[in-house]
Design brief:
The protein is an alpha/beta fold. It contains 10 helices and 9 strands. The longest helix has 19 residues.
Length: about 270
C-alpha cells in the first residue's frame, strides 16, 4: 500500500490485466459512507475506461466484506431534506450501476458478512463467490427502511419469490442458502476461496475481451424478452461477431491448435 492509498476507503490496484478493488474501512466492517460510495464509483468508471484491464475483482479488508450502511452516515441522512435524501440515494444507485454496467467482468469475493448494500454489491457483480462462513442479511426493514436502491440487482439475482421472504423478514442466511437462491455462484472454505477466485480469473483471461464485453451487454438486452422478440437482436449480434477480427483469430487459433492471441494461460495472482 502506498502512502497515498493509506486511509482511503477504497484501494484500486492494477496487476497486469486484472484490477483489484478493495473496500478498505475494516474498522467499521467496510460500511458505506459518502466517501466510500464516491471512490468505489470512481474506481469502476476508471476500470471501464482502461483498455488494458480485462477483469475486476472486488473484495473487502478485515473481518467482513461489507456491513451495509455506516451508522453515522445513516444518522446524518435522517436529518436531510427529501431532496438531499434523493440525491444521496442516487449516488448509491450510480455506484451500483458502475459495478453492474462495467464493460469488464466483475468477480465479487465475499467473506465474513454482507449486509444490506453489501448484498447489493454481491448481486451487482457478474460472478459472486463466498467463504462458507459468510453471513448475509437484507436487514433494512429491521431499521424501518428498505433495500430499495439495491432491489433491482438483488431481485435479478434471487427472484421475486425469495425476495418476499428476505426483504420482509430481514433475517440472516448463510452462504449455502445464498448459493441455493442464486445470490452467489460458488461457496468455498475461507482457506480455499483464493483458489476459486484465481480459477475464475484465469478462465476469464482465456476469453475474447470483445466477446466478453458484448456477451455481458447481450444478457441485459435479452433477459426477460420472448425468444421471438429477441431474435432480431441475437441474429444481428452473432452476424457482427462472426465477421469480427477477434472471432477470426479465435477460429484460426482453434484450427491451428494454439491459444488465441488474447489468451493469458497463466493464473493471475490477485
Amino acid at each position: 500500500m502506498t502512502a497515498a492509498e493509506e486511509g482511503r476507503p477504497v484501494r484500486l490496484a492494477r496487476e497486469g490485466p486484472v484490477a483489484r478493488v478493495t473496500l478498505s474501512r475494516p474498522g467499521v466492517r467496510n460500511a458505506f459512507d459518502d466517501a466510500l460510495i464516491a471512490e468505489l464509483t470512481r474506481a469502476f468508471l476508471e476500470i471501464a475506461a482502461d483498455g488494458e484491464i480485462r477483469v475486476a475483482v472486488l473484495s473487502g479488508d478485515g473481518p467482513a466484506f461489507c456491513a451495509g450502511a455506516d451508522i453515522g452516515w445513516m444518522r446524518r441522512a435522517g436529518s436531510y431534506s427529501r431532496e438531499e435524501n434523493e440525491a444521496d440515494a442516487e449516488r448509491m444507485a450510480k455506484m451500483l450501476a458502475a459495478v453492474d454496467t462495467c464493460a469488464k467482468p466483475v468477480v465479487v469475493v465475499a467473506h465474513g458478512a454482507a449486509v444490506g448494500g453489501g448484498v447489493g454489491l454481491v448481486a451487482a457483480g457478474d460472478i459472486a463467490i463466498a467463504a462458507d462462513d459468510t453471513v448475509f442479511s437484507l436487514a433494512e426493514v429491521r431499521l424501518g427502511i428498505l433495500p430499495s436502491v439495491i432491489s433491482p440487482y438483488v431481485l435479478r439475482a434471487i427472484g421475486a419469490r425469495q425476495a418476499r421472504r428476505y426483504f420482509l423478514t430481514g433475517e440472516r442466511f448463510d452462504a449455502r442458502e445464498a448459493l441455493r437462491i442464486g445470490l452467489v455462484h460458488a461457496v468455498a472454505p475461507a482457506a480455499g476461496l483464493a483458489a476459486v477466485r484465481d480459477g475464475l480469473v484465469a478462465s476469464l483471461l482465456t476469453a475474447g475481451p470483445e466477446a466478453v464485453r458484448i456477451a455481458k451487454r447481450l444478457i441485459g438486452e435479452v433477459a426477460g424478452r420472448r425468444p421471438e422478440d429477441a431474435m432480431p437482436l441475437t441474429v444481428k449480434t452473432i452476424a457482427e461477431r462472426r465477421a469480427s477480427a477477434e472471432a477470426k483469430e479465435g477460429l484460426t487459433a482453434f484450427l491451428e491448435k494454439r491459444p488465441p492471441s488474447w489468451a493469458i494461460e497463466k493464473k493471475s495472482k490477485v
